[in-house]
Design a protein that fits this description.
By secondary structure, the protein is an alpha/beta fold. It has helices at residues 5-11, 36-43, 59-72, 83-94, 109-118, 134-140, 163-172, 221-228, 234-238, 244-254, 257-277, 293-299, 317-329, 359-365, 382-395, and strands at 76-80, 100-104, 125-129, 145-151, 176-180, 197-201, 215-219, 281-283, 309-313, 333-335, 344-347, 371-375. Helix 7 links the parallel strand 4 and strand 5. The model is unreliable at 404-409 (pLDDT under 50). It binds pyridoxal-5'-phosphate (PLP). Residues 82-84, 108, 110-111, 151, 155, 180, 182-183, 201, 203-204, 213, 215 line the site of pyridoxal-5'-phosphate.
Length: 409
Amino acid sequence: MAFKPANNIQDLQYFGEFGGVNPSISDSSTYTFLSAKTMFDTFEGNADGCYLYSRHSSPSNLYLGEALAALEGTETANVSASGMGAITATLMQLCHAGSHIISSRTIYGGTYAFLKNFAPKFNITTSFVDINRLDLIETLINENTKVIYCESVSNPLLEVADITRLSRIAKKYNLKLVVDNTFSPLSIAPALLGADVVIHSLTKFINGSSDTVGGVICGSQEFINALRNVNDGASMLLGSTLDSLRAASVLKNLRTLHIRIQQHSKNALYLAQKFEADGLKTVYPGLESHPSHNLFKSMMHDAYGFGGMLTIDVGSLEKANELMEMMQGENLGYLAVSLGFYKTLFSAPGSSTSSEIPEEEQAKMGLTDGLIRFSIGLDADIERTYKVMRNCMQQLDIVSPKDAFIKYL
Ligand SMILES: *Cc1c(COP(=O)(O)O)cnc(C)c1O
């Protein structure tokens, strides 16, 4: 049977304490027990349905976790206070001193900085690779390797990982494949393709209103239980706990994710096609010119398209900055990092979100100075948006004047 994540979310039925259509928010950090014995059993992890303390679990966080597990098709999930809180807890849980990780080299700047600069303090080392070089990955595996880490669609260069084939390698060598799916919720379901752990920054598309940070780890019951273990669980002990009020608000926004992703994808595809036709160097997985177009298509759930992220290269950082300032002035979006908002967001990754990556490595990855990353918004009239964008690009000599239609704007 086909996997229908939006139906899974639609079908979750939660009642509030007073019959409300939204679940009640658990506004407590600690919980009473009618007997001392139950408290003991809860500490030992033997009292299902009992809550102990909200860093361990809370009803609101469990509701949201359950919904996100339904989204990703995993047994369960554990929410966290941020995407980085999910990523670091997962890696610290799977690794110990001496462990080795193989990671895609084109990943979120914070994840890169954690692996490159922070994890080595605990003698956890990482080999960064081009994630499409499967042959190279196999040669890098040694007896200390524990994890293969990648993003389904990478930040900011929109490289696509072949999750099915990576999972075959992971299984062959008994490694865990951890996939950050922040850029492609609903479009790609990594767990169905063999990923062991799927992570999201909820801050982005899933919440979609740029009003909070949050994260989630989706995986097996066994792994999530291990993360929550009071004695040695990384989520429990590192303490990156999402607040219940925020969990409740993210859950409400998750209800409309399927509609939003469709609109983000539709708008991004429209603009990518126009930009490419205008002669701009455009990277979007929905374009046939994208090296992983067919790979993305083979993994994607059609209804949701190729996502809301695209990049263009305007030649230099100065041009990129000028264009972004002008577009903001024209109210086309915001010069801001992050993604998944109703309005378009744009930034130059080389000097912002990926600035943790040294310049020579940026060059190796193809992360050029003039690159602008767009998170395309939910604009109702994307043609109107395009016309104003094109007008900005023309004024800055990024594209040459074409038709008279620009004039009457
Ligand atoms: C933003 C982001 C993160 C980090 O998430 P936070 O919620 O900011 O901690 C991780 N991975 C990707 C791909 C991201 O875009």
